[in-house]
Amino acid sequence: MVDSRSEIKMKYTLTYLEDTTIICFEDNVVTVDQNLKFWEAELLKFEPWIRFQNKCNSGIQLFVNRHGCQKWYEGAHLHRDDGPAVIFQKSGVKEWWIHGIRSNK
Q: pLDDT, tens digit, for every residue of 12-42?
């Protein structure tokens, strides 16, 4: 079977501050409210997202796109203990999720 999807080529730089990570894309800047210096970053091959994998807890992942959308997962479920699990930076909308169940925080 031949995969007809186009491979994504997206340039970005990462800057780590005490409790923040700044991701600079060619056309936007995204701020994450956590220092991800010791997380593994990987640009997904066919989707316009960067995946950050927690090296200490491999079940925790953060996906960030160049538009400022952030999605935090534990395993296969949206989840974050210390903040919103979904953040839309441009609109300011934030959603809290615990183990895949939306919370009314």
A: 999 999 999 999 999 999 999 999 999 999 9
**Stated pTM of the model:** 0.89
Phi-psi map region of 4: left, alpha, beta (phi>0 left; psi -120 to 50 alpha) = alpha
Q: What sign does the dihedral 94-99-103-105 (CA atoms) show?
A: negative
Following DSSP, what letter does each residue of 13-45 receive, concatenated? Answer: EEEE-SS-EEEEESS-EEEESS--TTEEEEE-S
List residues bridging with 98 in a β-sheet: 101
58 Cβ contact list (under 8 Å, min separation 6)? none
Does the residue 54 lie in any domain? yes
Has residue 64 been placed in a domain? yes
